[in-house]
Amino acid sequence: MLEHYFTCPYCWETISMMLDISVSKQVYIEDCEVCCHPIQLSVKFINSELVDFQVDNIEQ
């Protein structure tokens, strides 16, 4: 597991999430721990190293 910090696209607060490094490519939805809005996370690992991390607002 890897703790990664990023900015919420809704409330602009810095939050962290634990990422599973055992799965090389992931797309999932988590709620912001501050404002509770759903955030789509796209994550990619190569050799357990985070190489791509994207956060998207799914409420438009």
Task: Give a verbal description of the structure.
- Pfam families: Zn_ribbon_21.
- It comes from Mariniflexile litorale.
- This is CPXCG motif-containing cysteine-rich protein.
- With 60 residues, this protein is mainly beta.
- It has one domain.
- The protein contains no helices and 5 strands.
- It has a 3-stranded antiparallel beta sheet, with no helix packed on it. Strands 1-2 form a two-stranded antiparallel sheet.
- Strand 1 and strand 2 (14-19) form a beta hairpin.
- It is elongated, with a radius of gyration of 11 Å.
- It starts with a strand and ends with a strand.
- The mean pLDDT is 94.
Approximately how much helix is present in the residues? under 10%
Residue stretches low in confidence (pLDDT < 50, at least 5 long) are none
Q: Which class of secondary structure composition applies to the elements? A: mainly beta
Total domains: 1
Say how many strands there are.
5
> Number of helix segments?
0
Rough shape? elongated
Q: Mind telling me the C-alpha Rg?
A: 11 Å
Biggest β-sheet: strands ordered side by side in the sheet: 3-4-5
- H/E element order: EEEEE
Strand fraction band? Answer: over 45%
Features:
about 60 residues; about 60% strand; elongated; two-stranded antiparallel sheet; mainly beta
Compile the SSE list and pairings.
Elements (H helix, E strand, L loop, with lengths): L1 E6 L6 E6 L5 E7 L6 E9 L2 E9 L3
Antiparallel strand pairs: 1-2, 3-4, 4-5
